[in-house]
Amino acid sequence: MHMSDDEGCIKVWDTRERSCCNSFEVHDDYISDMTYVAETNQILATSGDGTLSVNNLRRNKVRSRSEFSEDELLSLVLMKHGKKVVCGTPSGALLLYSWGYFNDCSDRFIGHTQSVDTMLKLDEDTLVSGSSDGVIRLVGILPNRIKQPLAEHSEYPIEALALSNDKKYLGSISHDKMLKLWDLEELLSGPQVANGDEPAEAGSDDSDDDSDDDVMDVDMAATSSKGSRSKKAGKGQSSSRPASDFFADL
């Protein structure tokens, strides 16, 4: 079990011995997000100091730390079979780091109008983002594009996203103190968009070339102000059943 604090320290606990077995004092500000990489037995962490760190549990040492970014790093997700680390920022930009080359990001693209506070990996090429404008979006990585807005939780920032164990439901929480459950299949069945508001035609989208590219096709509806979006226009239906029922499936 791993945890972090507002001082930038990461600690790993042995639940059998009930003691701390690893400690990494690598960051200068709060830890915003962490993810465990089982294949290499490492923990990736982002921080309010604007850096990304790679921490080796086997050797109990910091393997790498990125240069300071202009923005805080708020969220992270590992994509492309472990080849890319995607980080969210307060400006709405997503920073891409190539595995093994963590000094600086290899790609940066804009698509969100406000901060990207949480992200969830859907598959190796697609993630789900939660932004401070309250909108949940489907984002493609390499080629980089916002495919479609999936739903609007509320007018408040989205704090976290999670999938049910069977991956049929997407859960979102916000400052409105409510857990909402979305039928993921119904959300994904909505039309994807290219430029403007017109649905993209099959086969007319970007190629699957994995080369880094600064170009991002942005859905104009997704980047409009939250006041122009109707909460009743969401493609999925939410549920307000207790949070304990949802997380029991995880």
UniProtKB/TrEMBL annotation:
Comp. bias intervals (Acidic residues): 198-217
Gene3D superfamilies, per database record: YVTN repeat-like/Quinoprotein amine dehydrogenase
Short name of one Pfam family: WDR55
Region (Disordered): 191-250
Coiled coil spans: none
InterPro entries registered for this protein in UniProt: WD40/YVTN_repeat-like_dom_sf, WD40_repeat_CS, WD40_repeat_dom_sf, WD40_rpt, WDR55/POC1
UniProt KW keywords: Repeat, WD repeat
Intervals holding WD repeats: 151-185
Keyword Cytoplasm part of the UniProt annotation: no
SMART domains associated with the record: WD40
Comp. bias (Low complexity): 218-227
Residues in the signal sequence: none
Keyword DNA-binding part of the UniProt annotation: no
Family: Belongs to the WD repeat WDR55 family.
Protein name: Uncharacterized protein
Species of provenance: Zea mays (Maize)
